[in-house]
Amino acid sequence: MIRFVLADLGTRRLGALLLVLIIAFATGLGVLVTLQERALRLGSARAAAAFDLVVGAPGSETQLVLSAVFLQPAPLTLVPGEVMARLSADPRVAFAAPVGFGDFAGASPIVGTTTAMLRALGGLRAGHGLEQLSDAVVGAKVPHALGDTLVPMHGQIEAGGHVHAGIAYHVVGQLAPTGTPWDRAVLVPIQAVWQVHEHEHEHEHGVGAGAADDDDDDEAHAPLAGPVDEAAARRADAPGVPAIVVKPVSIAAAYSLRQSFRGHGTLAVFPGEVLARLYGTMGDARKVLALVAAGAQGLVGAAILLVVMAEVMQRRRQIGALRAFGAARGAVFALVWMESFLLLALGVVAGVGVGTAGAWALSAGLERQAGIALPVELAGGDLLQAGLLLALGAGAALLPAVLAYRQSPAEVLRG
Amino acid sequence: MSAPKSAPKSAPKSALAIRDLVVRYPGLDAPALEVPALTLAAGEALLVSGPSGAGKTTFLNAVTGLDGRGQGVVAWDGINLIGLSEGARDRWRAGHVGLVMQDFHLFPALSVRENVMLPQRLARWGRLPPALRTEADALLVRVGLDRPQQRAGTLSRGQKQRTAVARALLCRPGIVVADEPTASLDPVAGHAVAELLVGLAANLGASLIVASHDPVFAARIARHARLEGGRFVTGEGDAA
After folding, report:
1. Residue from A34, A39, A31 nearest A348 by CA
2. B7 in a domain, yes or no?
3. With contacts defined as CB-CB under 8 Å, which chain B residues touch A413?
4. Is the ipTM of this complex over 0.85?
5. Number of compact structural domains in chain B
6. What is the model's pLDDT at position A158?
7. Do A408 and B67 touch (CB under 8 A)?
8. Residue ranges per structural domain of chain A
9. Chain A residue closest to B110 (CA)?
């Protein structure tokens, strides 16, 4: 019987293939929406995992998270150095690390920070940490090797940046891959960023990359030299930074810290909470997309059911002949059902493949662009959903089968 | 030829008895078929002719149980097909009737052998007895087709109808019914098919009913009945 079904599908393989493809694309659309939304959620949550609490100057919470966690360039107001000093001395804090943006090396943002940040990001896979002012530790995806010299550009080169004369960093270490935008970052001592941009701080505007600034940079800077004094970053009279990443000693400490550093010139946020709010918005968009995809699936399903039923009507003499020759009624029913269901099942299975492949491709593209690893993962619920779709199809395939079942064999001799 | 020479054991001979058969179609005043009495002895052959619309198809549908509508009695060996359920008629037909039609109704993607065995395969669940395949091949040789693996789509029209004849005879039916079996063939192929059909049915001891205009059958079948306006006008009657 299977052999017969396959042979019969073989004779009309072009039509069958088209039906399977249409079903596959309709199914794939739904799979793609689900997987991509999940990838975005998982990916950004993982990227934020190392950042328990972020403290910055009052402003947009979302922007603070996007800048500190995802290294999105934006001009942020600085928090005074005194805040960093207070955090460092606080017993509720395991460590506090500044995040200061300064310049670009190629397409990679240069981030001024301290050794604590290197540890928080997962440590080094090669070389050593920031010991000299001119040291740089590169993210896993920065196209520079140990020993390379980096010349910082003020602003990205495409955006018409210019070099700081006389300044150069030496790559002394490389971070282990994190799957976050930090893989593309160049980490340097925060003091180096301060030194390069000393004069800017007087204007009190952010050391935001890409920020329009009118400083006259033709003068030569003093070359970066000497060892890093990490304690200097914790002094109350240290320059301001756009954001401070804080690792509290406990969950209770995290909440109490957030309480203490809200208001009075600072803003403290849980990146996880801010992201959850973003997902809420994203979830609504996903619902709309999922509805559109489901609608498409329903319409495609109905259209295909019509095609299959028209086919049954077209072949009623053939079906009648089978009955006339002695085929059991139930066998004819089973044949038509199996053929319809086989087409559908092939389409759904191919659709899951198409959707997953599409999500992979999209994730790879986004990863290249944004630097966030977007993991495409099939969950058990997806299989359940595909199973549900199959069950629905199995039910729908009953229609043409019943039509064939009711076909009188007497038709075959007529005409 | 090693075809079943008479094979009387597995082919119970069937005799037909029709009494007071009236078939009407909705919306028509005159009955489409009216046969007061007609009998056919077991193993006897009957040729039915008549203009189109005379009721030939209605007659064949009635005697094969393809259509169970109507009043009266259409009984093969005492089993009245009128009033039998559709499933019961299907089962009865599968066990007793071999059908050959003007259209061959072969599946082009399947081999000749698979086509011959298809009705049996679809008539029951489970595996076919292995002997059936040997029998199918023997029958194919008997009708002049010695490549059972050949795809049916590549056959000539004459070969296709010979395959259909083999398919009709595979389960050694007691009744063979053919509806214009030569109408879509050239004279040479038609001649060969008529020869095979009449010869093999006689060999099996099966009763044979052929509806045809083709004179090739008139020469081979002694009993001839002509239908006009739903009634038999000649050769009718309860002879035999």
Report:
1. A31
2. no
3. 57, 60-61, 66, 101, 179
4. no
5. 1
6. 58
7. yes
8. 2-45+278-413, 53-269
9. A7
